[in-house]
From TrEMBL:
Keywords: Oxidoreductase. The keyword Oxidoreductase applies. Residues 1-21 are annotated as: Disordered. This is Oxidase ustYa. Pathway: Mycotoxin biosynthesis. Belongs to the ustYa family. The lineage of its organism: Eukaryota, Fungi, Dikarya, Ascomycota, Pezizomycotina. InterPro entries: UstYa-like.
Length: 183
């Protein structure tokens, strides 16, 4: 199996690739937010929240070089005749789309509809829908006793997650851009 960077983490194949790997490991994560504590990511536009969103992206914004030194299966956009290909890691595309919907929401709320790229938002909503369905987190979120059993905030439940920090490190080590920020 080709190794791009392992740094001691469990290797998991990149989606749609039998040989390429991204170093990552699983870890437990407790989802915290709204009613337990507000995170910066849910706050209205302000410099501190914008900085937090920007820092979610590794240097290079998730655009990476992948060596075609192994027999990768046919994939849309892959040119197997090239020694190296460029790609974007989906999690960073997904975070960018979440941020764009956030930015669009606040622009619309302020009446600045000329700042809203509707085509980009429509792409993001469908892309995120498919990503959520693909990853299909099956963590059970327990409901309060009736009559308050209409839904869940999602906060306070432990999920098994991929190690986002390890993925970010791998993306930075294999980047082909030096851009910063989520947008």
């Amino acid at each position: 199996m080709a190794e791009h960077s392992s740094k001691g983490y469990k290797e998991v194949p990149v989606r749609n690739s039998e040989e390429s790997t991204i170093a990552e490991e699983e870890k437990e994560a407790l989802f915290l937010g709204y009613r337990r504590r507000q995170t910066l990511y849910g706050e209205p536009l302000n410099p501190e929240a914008e900085k937090a969103w920007d820092e979610l992206m590794p240097v290079g914004r998730g655009f990476v070089n992948i060596n075609n030194d192994t027999a990768l299966p046919d994939q849309p956009g892959l040119d197997q005749s090239l020694p190296q290909q460029r790609a974007m890691i989906s999690v960073f595309h997904q975070l960018h789309c979440i941020y764009m919907t956030r930015e669009g929401y606040y622009a619309a709320r302020e009446g600045n509809l000329d700042q809203v790229n509707a085509a980009h938002l429509m792409h993001c909503w469908d892309y995120l829908r498919q990503a959520v369905m693909c990853n299909a987190d099956t963590t059970l979120e327990w409901l309060p006793a009736p009559p308050n059993d209409r839904g869940s905030t999602g906060w306070g439940y432990e999920h098994t997650c991929r190690d986002f920090d390890a993925i970010s490190r791998w993306a930075e080590e294999n980047r082909f851009k030096t851009t910063h920020g989520i947008h």
